[in-house]
Design brief:
Elements: E1 11-15, H1 20-31, E2 35-40, H2 43-57, E3 61-65, H3 71-79, H4 83-86, E4 88-93, H5 109-137, E5 141-145, H6 158-177, E6 184-190, H7 197-201, H8 206-212, H9 221-232, E7 242-245, E8 250-252, E9 255-256
Parallel strand pairs: 1-2, 1-4, 2-3, 4-5, 5-6, 6-7
Antiparallel strand pairs: 8-9
Helix pairs in contact: 1-2, 1-9, 3-5, 5-6
Bound molecules: NADP nicotinamide-adenine-dinucleotide phosphate (NAP).
Length: 263
C-alpha cells in the first residue's frame, strides 16, 4: 500500500456510470476520495448517484448527460469542463453493449451500428477528447473495459466480439501512442458479469437475460471494479497492461459450469 498511487482528490471520469460495472467503479473510486465525473445517457440515474456519493464520501461529483456515439457532444462536454475538472487523472472507458445474439450475416443493421458506434467509435471519441490533456500534463491513466469477447469469439457474438477485439487493438495501440509519457493504459477484460448487459442485449427480455446467469455464480460488477481500482492504484512506474478475469464457473467463452438442481 505504501507505494500505491493515491486517488484522493484526483479527477476520475467514468463513462457508462449509470449501471453495472461503471456504477460499481464509481462506488470504489468514491470510497478512495476521488472526485468523479459520472457520464451516461440516463442523466437522472447519474444525478442520483452523484448526489449519494458526494454525501457519503465528502467528494465532488459531476453528473454528465453524454452519448459517447456523438463525437461533437463528447468534445463539447470535455471542452466545457472547468479547468479543474478537465485535469482527468483516470478515465474509465466503460460504456458499451452487446445487441442480439445472431449470426453475423443475420445481424440487424441497427444492432451492427449500435455496437460499432458505442464500443469502437464511442471509445475513440472519449479517448480523443481526454488523452491529449493527459499527454500535455504528462500524467494520467486510461482504463478500458474490454471483454473475454476481445480474445475469443463465440456463436452468436461475432459482431460484438469483433468490437471487443477492436478494443483490445485500441488498447495496445494507445499505449504505443503515449509511449515516452507517464500516461498509463490498461484493459480490464471480464467474462460473464451480472449487470443490465444481457437485458440490453435481449432488448428488455429479463427472463431471457436471467438464463445467462442461471445455475452458476457470475462475476459481480464489484469484482470488476476491484480489478479496475487495483490497476489505478499501482505505483506510477507500474502499468498493468491487461487483466483477464472470469468467475470460477467460467473457463472459456462458452465453457460454463452450471449446477442444476438434479446434478
Ligand atoms: N456484463 C458482462 O458480462 C460484460 C462482460 C465483459 C465486458 N463487459 C463490458 O462492460 C462494459 C459495461 O457493461 P455492463 O456489464 O456494466 O452493462 P450495463 O449494466 O448495461 O451498463 C452499460 C453502461 O453503458 C452505458 N452506455 C451504453 N450506451 C451508451 C452510449 N451511447 N453513451 C454513453 N453511455 C452508454 C449505459 O448507460 P446509459 O444507457 O445510461 O447511457 C450503462 O451505464 C461494456 O463495455 C461491456 O461490453 C460486460
Amino acid at each position: 500500500m505504501e507505494n500505491s498511487f493515491r486517488l484522493k482528490d484526483r479527477i476520475v471520469f467514468i463513462t457508462g456510470a449509470s449501471s453495472g460495472i461503471g456504477k460499481s467503479c464509481a462506488l470504489s473510486f468514491a470510497a478512495r476520495g476521488a472526485h468523479l465525473i459520472l457520464a451516461a445517457r440516463r442523466i437522472e440515474r447519474v444525478e442520483t448517484l452523484a448526489t449519494e456519493l458526494a454525501r457519503a464520501h465528502g467528494i465532488q461529483t459531476l453528473p454528465l448527460e453524454l452519448d459517447v456515439t456523438n463525437r461533437k457532444a463528447v468534445f463539447d462536454a470535455v471542452q466545457d469542463l472547468s479547468p479543474e475538472w478537465r485535469k482527468v487523472e483516470v478515465l474509465v472507458n466503460n460504456a458499451g453493449k452487446a445487441l442480439g445474439l445472431d449470426k453475423s450475416y443475420e445481424t440487424k443493421i441497427e444492432h451492427l451500428e449500435g455496437m460499432m458506434e458505442t464500443n469502437v467509435k464511442g471509445l475513440v471519441h472519449v479517448i480523443s477528447a481526454i488523452v491529449p490533456g493527459m499527454v500535455e500534463r504528462n500524467q494520467g491513466h486510461v482504463i478500458q473495459i474490454g471483454s473475454t469477447a476481445g480474445r475469443w469469439v463465440y456463436p452468436g457474438g461475432t459482431v460484438y466480439c469483433a468490437t471487443k477485439h477492436a478494443v483490445r487493438a485500441l488498447n495496445e495501440g494507445l499505449k504505443m501512442d503515449v509511449h515516452g509519457t507517464n500516461v498509463r493504459v490498461s484493459s480490464v477484460d471480464p467474462g460473464l458479469v451480472e449487470t443490465e448487459f444481457s437485458i440490453v442485449r435481449f432488448d428488455g427480455d429479463a427472463e431471457r437475460a436471467d438464463k445467462v446467469y442461471a445455475d452458476m455464480t457470475p462475476l459481480s460488477p464489484h469484482d470488476v471494479a476491484d480489478a479496475v481500482l487495483w490497476c489505478a492504484t499501482r505505483p506510477p512506474h507500474v502499468n498493468i497492461s491487461e487483466i483477464l478475469l472470469m468467475c470460477t464457473d467460467q473457463s472459456h467463452a462458452t465453457l460454463i459450469n452450471r449446477q442444476t438442481s438434479d446434478s
